[in-house]
Amino acid sequence: MDWSHSLRLIAPEETLSIAGLILLLLAAWGGDKASRLISILAVAALVGATALVAPALCGGAMGADTSAFFGQFRADAFSSYAKILIYLSAAVTLVVAPAFFERTAAMRAEFPVLIVFAALGSGMMVSASDLLTLYVGLEMNSLAAYVLAAFVRTDGRSAEAGLKYFVLGALASGILLFGMSLTYGFTGTTSFDGINAALAGGLSNGAVFGIVFMLAGLAFKISAVPFHMWTPDVYEGAPTPVTTFFATSGKVAAVGLTMRVLLDAFGDQAAAWRQIIVFIALASIIVGALGAIGQKNIKRLMAYSSINNVGFILVGLATANVQGASAMLFYMALYVAMSLGGFVAILMLKDEAGRPVEDIQSLGGLSRTRPGLALALAIVMFSLAGIPPLFGFWGKFLVFQAAVEADLMALAFIGFAASVIGAFYYLKVVKIIYFDEPVNAVTGESDVWHKAILVVTCLIMSPLGYLLTRWLSGLTDTAATALFFTS
Amino acid sequence: MIHVIAFYLFAVLTIASGAVTILARNPVHSVLWLILAFFNAAGLMVLTGAEFIAMLLVIVYVGAVAVLFLFVVMMLDIDFASLRAGFVRYFPFGALVAIVLLAEIVLGIGAYRAGALELGSPDGTAATPAGASNIEAVGGLLYSRYLFLFEAAGIVLLVAMIGAIVLTHRQRTDTRGQNIRKQNMRRPGDATVNVKPEVGKGVQL
């Protein structure tokens, strides 16, 4: 093993950790007054790290050359694709956060530092090719996430969200660790390649238990049914920029990690875990759709929407082939764009004093008072519902196409039917915005950065997004091929 | 033979005390059972020849549990007088626990002297290098093969520390701190004023 080769492969991680440490010193000396400067530097570090990982994706890096530190870390095209999404959404979170915290003066210099470390942990998760890397990355991301959820100490809901997330997250980590120790016990190794080789002769009962427990822990992290109960509470209670971060960067990291574990370590045992994934996917789609109907808070609605969307993403995983993985990656990029757009629009819903408006009924007649914002929300909702002219449709189409071609007809059919149920609550929001009497609750002015990001994400979601299809599916195909190359 | 007896003794006691940890109604009792579970787990580690991890379990976990114990005692309203009341009644049980622990120590040492327990056959990665002690082997791996994860774990701890500070530290404005520089800069002339109030007018400050 060549140290310099390994160190070159983890250049983005080095950049982020050194940047994080320097920013921490700045935060310690500069205090909360320096938080704007620290945010700008953190965004620069994240964009720099994105630039460092991009060549691996464009060059289609895969195979033994991408493996670092005795096979514990893999910097291939797949990890590069996921990291670009993670780092960019973390950067967007940092851009939109200051305006939100301004009103309550809750911005602290540690916020950007924690976001940088959380992004670092997420990057390690999607690069993991060893159970130890998986766990260390996951904990780095989770610990930062618990603190971020409870970041506004003066707000009782935020503290509740942080505590709930922490207790349930610790439980999920315990279950995951138990599954990992069973897997290690029955295969004798922690490396994904080693596990794959050890299981080649067939699965013992103990190894099946290992897979099931690991899946339970991972399902918690991606907030899939039946481990989804924390999601609405945490999404509602956490400060909105932090919710944005969870729904984009955290989700990509957890889904990427699940793909790595199932398609790499247990890649040849698809028969053992496929039925679990099919169940989780369908349950997430249905519970996400039905649970959202009764919601009165728009952030809770988005939380159920994220459960629903994770179900669609997992439909691609059930196929366990390159086409399905590629469809998942495509859907994930779209979902990141839709979530960013959705949460930035929610950030812009505020009253005269700048207090956030989260009640769905208060959006009544928004189209007459704020036509631009209303149009953006409508685009987000239609796109999340997957209604054809918008780009969100294409993601759903790809995963269902992959499922049909893998002969999972029942899964595709039930998923498709449930997506129609899901469309109901998205359309309800649009109806309130466009056809109800004006309530005039949303009167506050928004930051120019919010508007800029909303315009960009809406352009991606609009039919213009189809211009990206060719380029994006080229990238996802490369990334998915890299994921399957070693297994 | 002594290996097998010692193994089953430690294993059964670990699981039993783990179960009682959950079932005990009194949190203080729970903590004590937890300590027993850790001691027995350490015994299992000694049996497999991992002395370093055994010591680590005892030092780290029992130490941590002692701190936890203090927290429990501080935060919960427990009447210690009533806990102490049944000393004579519970003495036989306490003596039994002590005898079991003594037997464990004797058996454990005996089994350890007889050589490590063979649990399967360690392959190249799991076997201790010949001639190296446990600590050397762990350290050798930690700083070479697992260097990346070791550094990453350091960052995890750093994040935990930042988190604890962010969530608990705050600048209080309603308390007055001591500013030593300001105190030293102060001159007697600024601190005291001579006034000559007129009769009947009072003092104006």
Automatic annotation (TrEMBL), chain A:
Residues 128-422 form the NADH:quinone oxidoreductase/Mrp antiporter transmembrane domain. Its main location: membrane. It is a multi-pass membrane protein. The gene is nuoN. It is found in: Cell membrane; Endomembrane system; Membrane. Belongs to the complex I subunit 2 family. NDH-1 is composed of 14 different subunits. Subunits NuoA, H, J, K, L, M, N constitute the membrane sector of the complex. Keywords: Cell membrane, Membrane, NAD, Oxidoreductase, Quinone, Translocase, Transmembrane, Transmembrane helix, Transport, Ubiquinone. Its EC number is 7.1.1.-. The chain crosses the membrane at residues 15-31, 38-64, 84-101, 113-138, 165-186, 198-220, 272-294, 301-322, 328-349, 370-388, 408-427, 448-468. HAMAP family: NDH1_NuoN_1. It is an enzyme of class 7 (translocase). It holds the Pfam family Proton_antipo_M. GO terms for cellular component: endomembrane system; plasma membrane. GO terms for molecular function: NADH dehydrogenase (quinone) (non-electrogenic) activity; NADH dehydrogenase (ubiquinone) activity; quinone binding. It catalyses: a quinone + NADH + 5 H(+)(in) = a quinol + NAD(+) + 4 H(+)(out). PANTHER family: NADH DEHYDROGENASE (PTHR22773). One of its GO terms (biological process) is ATP synthesis coupled electron transport. NDH-1 shuttles electrons from NADH, via FMN and iron-sulfur (Fe-S) centers, to quinones in the respiratory chain. The immediate electron acceptor for the enzyme in this species is believed to be ubiquinone. Couples the redox reaction to proton translocation (for every two electrons transferred, four hydrogen ions are translocated across the cytoplasmic membrane), and thus conserves the redox energy in a proton gradient. This is NADH-quinone oxidoreductase subunit N.
Automatic annotation (TrEMBL), chain B:
It catalyses: a quinone + NADH + 5 H(+)(in) = a quinol + NAD(+) + 4 H(+)(out). It is found in: Cell membrane. One of its GO terms (cellular component) is plasma membrane. Pfam families: Oxidored_q3. It comes from the Bacteria. Belongs to the complex I subunit 6 family. This is NADH-quinone oxidoreductase subunit J.
